[in-house]
């Protein structure tokens, strides 16, 4: 995620702000998981995080590759 953000920021790509927001969210999530009791159901949150990451990176990679038909309409 750091490398992706650096590349996007260096070229002033319009994806850079979202990449930064996702990176910061992930960093905060990581800190939160280290705090016992922060999440009422850590197993659920962990699974949710894995699925969101798969959707995010899949959509980003398909968009960047020009495979627009494989990108969700929300993108």
Description:
Helix content is 67%, strand content 0%. The protein is an all-alpha fold and 75 residues long. The chain has one domain. The model has no long low-confidence stretch (mean pLDDT 90).
- Summed up, the helix count is 3
Residues in helix, % = 55-70%
Order of H and E elements: HHH
* Average pLDDT number: 90
Structural domains: how many:
1
Radius of gyration: 14 Å
Number of strands: 0
Task: Indicate the proportion of strand residues.
Answer: under 5%
Summing up helix and strand content along with how strands pair, one would put the structural category as mainly alpha
Profile the largest sheet.
none
Gross geometry: flat
Q: Any low-confidence stretches, pLDDT <50, length ≥5?
A: none
Distance between the ends: 18 Å
Secondary-structure map:
Blueprint lengths: L1 H9 L5 H18 L8 H23 L11
Helix pairs in contact: 1-2
